[in-house]
TrEMBL record, chain A:
Residues 16-88 form the Transcription regulator PadR N-terminal domain. It comes from the Bacteria. InterPro entries: Metal_resp_DNA-bind_regulator, Tscrpt_reg_PadR_N, WH-like_DNA-bd_sf, WH_DNA-bd_sf. This is PadR family transcriptional regulator. Pfam families: PadR.
From TrEMBL, chain B:
Keywords: Membrane, Transmembrane, Transmembrane helix. The lineage of its organism: Bacteria, Pseudomonadati, Pseudomonadota, Gammaproteobacteria, Alteromonadales. The keyword Transmembrane applies. This is DUF4153 domain-containing protein. The chain crosses the membrane at residues 99-121, 133-151, 158-180, 186-206, 227-250, 262-280, 292-313, 325-346, 358-380, 392-412, 433-453. It comes from Idiomarina tyrosinivorans.
Length: 125, 454
């Protein structure tokens, strides 16, 4: 599924931070993890994630180090900073508010138009 | 069956791919390495699924996104790098840069002629008219630098109107306000007008980006480098003047009138335009010098401020600062703030905190202490001796500095202790530019009315 540009811009940073909450990682692994978490439904244009990682680094949420990977190539690893850890719970609250509001809104629309479909999760149109 | 399809070679394909990315100034070698690692990882996965090497390469390359998309994304994040590389090597830029070069030359020439205009109306450049020329100097160069930027950036009509409005506003104040000649409000206005005009020039420099943190940071970098270029040109100019006088005196002629009436004033005004052009055109020449100078002077200024504080406290003179010392202190603080602003803008936001950042923090903290002292001294002077325009201006200046430096101190502290990135500091710095402008405008336009133009 291709997300709209705005939704993509809003959601990718929280997603990256949440993934890095499990421990440090690198770009390719993060993309794989996003695909895995979304059941293969979310596809990012791979190159787009790196500027975003750099922005988060600039904002002080991530710290990066270069190391040599098991492949023998040098690879840049990203890890959360304290500031990054702090911002995750805030983002979680915000997204839950949006998620709940949307679910309630769609439930009432469904009732009105009588499809009766249930929305258990966040489903962008 | 003979295969006429040429064989795929990964190293060549990779190097061509890297080559294409190298054309983008926002991408560094490190970034390309990072992308390459991604590309190769994706290829390895695809090959495990059974794709041939060339197929895997093309799929992985495509998933990476087009060069154009990548360019845009990286540029948004790393605008500071673009600044460093804005001297593009592309052919298409050549004619454009020749146009700006001629334009800069013409603007400088017009500015130089403009400064001679008052002489045609009888206000010659002599000692009794020195005040007139000092008050108007910034007005002679402002319009021409503005024109240079407006033409180069192809800005819309709104910007031109802003430039015209600024010139009209400034000349109304300088020439129509009924100032007492040589009074303190006149001096304050003359002192603050160039600073205000400079910040307004920032809007033309940044163009559409004048609200952005990145745009404003570019303007601060520009200001620092502009200053250095101007000083260099001025030094060259002094050598030129000295040689002119010397050679003419050899043949028994006095060239002083030529130098005083023409070379110095025209050169000084023309150079304000030329320096603005040079900073942009010859960026590479200075981008290595200016940050080094900032790094040399940061510890020296910190040392100066600290030793000054220690001396004051040791001799017990801390709250008994006289007028001249207060003025000197305020000037010093303004210089320190300028140095600080430039250093922040010249820094790579992605770097971890270094020793230099700690020094910078020491500089900010000591400036803050000196500012508090100055503030106490000026308040006690006002309490004892009453209000004057100079004292109120100093009070306001010290309060603005206190708040601004306080923010720098706080954000530097957070950054050095790893609690936040460098970005909040950049945001803080750029948010203050309009506040400074408003303060300057108040001193220029409102103070004279408040104090009856004395």
């Amino acid at each position: 599924m291709n997300l709209s540009k705005d939704l993509m811009a809003a959601s990718s940073a929280p997603l990256i931070l949440a993934i890095l909450a499990d421990g440090e990682s690198y770009g390719y692994e993060i993309v794989q993890r996003v695909a895995e978490l979304s059941g293969g439904k979310l596809h990012w244009t791979d190159g787009m994630m790196y500027p975003l990682l750099h922005r988060l680094e600039k904002q002080g949420y991530l710290a990066a180090v270069w190391r040599v990977a098991e492949t023998g190539r040098k690879r840049k690893y990203y890890a959360l900073t304290d500031a990054g850890k702090g911002v995750i719970s805030e983002q979680q609250k915000q997204w839950q508010v949006v998620n709940n509001a949307l679910n309630n809104a769609w439930r009432s629309t469904d009732n009105m138009i009588g499809t009766g479909g249930s929305n258990d999760g966040f489903q962008p149109a | 069956m003979a295969s006429n399809q040429h064989k795929f070679a990964l190293p060549e394909a990779l190097s061509a791919w890297r080559q294409a990315l190298c054309g983008n100034p926002a991408l560094r070698q490190d970034d390309i390495d990072e992308l390459e690692d991604h590309l190769l990882s994706e290829m390895a996965r695809l090959q495990q699924l059974g794709l041939a090497e060339d197929e895997a390469f093309f799929v992985a390359e495509r998933r990476m996104g087009t060069d154009h998309q990548l360019d845009q994304q990286y540029q948004q994040v790393h605008s500071g790098r673009l600044w460093r590389n804005s001297v593009a090597t592309e052919q298409s830029r050549a004619s454009e840069s020749r146009f700006t070069c001629y334009l800069a030359f013409i603007c400088a020439l017009l500015a130089a002629l403009a400064i001679k205009l008052p002489a045609a109306f009888g206000i010659t450049l002599t000692d009794e008219n020195a005040g007139f020329y000092l008050r108007h100097a910034s007005l002679f160069s402002f319009p021409f630098i503005a024109v240079l930027f407006i033409a180069k950036r192809q800005l819309s009509l709104r910007y031109t109107l802003l430039a015209v409005a600024t010139v009209v506003f400034a000349s109304l104040i300088i020439d129509v306000y009924p100032f007492a000649d040589g009074g303190s409000t006149q001096q304050l206005t003359a002192l603050h007008l160039p600073l205000l005009l400079w910040l307004v020039l920032g809007v033309f420099y940044c163009g559409e980006r004048w609200r952005d943190v990145a745009g404003r940071m570019d303007f601060i970098r520009f200001s620092g480098e502009y200053l250095i270029y101007y000083v260099l040109i001025a030094l060259g100019g002094m050598v030129l003047v000295a040689s002119t006088m010397a050679t003419f005196s050899m043949i028994g002629l006095d060239a002083e009138w030529l130098v005083q009436r023409w070379v110095v004033p025209c050169g000084a005004i023309g150079a304000t335009v030329i320096a603005a052009y040079l900073v942009e055109a010859k960026q590479l020449a200075l981008e290595n010098i200016a940050p080094v100078l900032a790094r040399i002077f940061t510890p020296l200024f910190a040392l100066l401020l600290l030793s000054f504080l220690v001396t004051l406290l040791a001799t017990g003179n801390a709250f008994d600062l006289n007028r001249e010392l207060l003025i000197a202190l305020d000037l010093l603080l303004v210089v320190v703030l300028g140095l600080l602003m430039y250093s922040v803008s010249a820094r790579d936001g992605n770097q971890q905190a270094t020793l230099f950042d700690r020094l910078q923090w020491v500089l900010v903290l000591s400036a803050l202490l000196v500012d508090v002292l100055a503030l106490l001294a000026i308040s006690s002077r006002i309490a004892e001796l009453g209000w004057t325009p100079n004292r109120i201006a100093a009070l306001g200046e010290n309060i603005v500095l206190l708040l601004s430096l306080g923010g720098y101190a706080w954000h530097y502290g957070q950054f050095i202790r790893g609690k936040a990135g460098f970005y909040p500091l950049e945001q803080w710095q750029t948010r203050w530019l309009p506040i400074y402008a408003v303060w300057f405008a108040i001193v220029v336009a409102v103070f004279p009315c408040l104090f009856d133009f004395v």
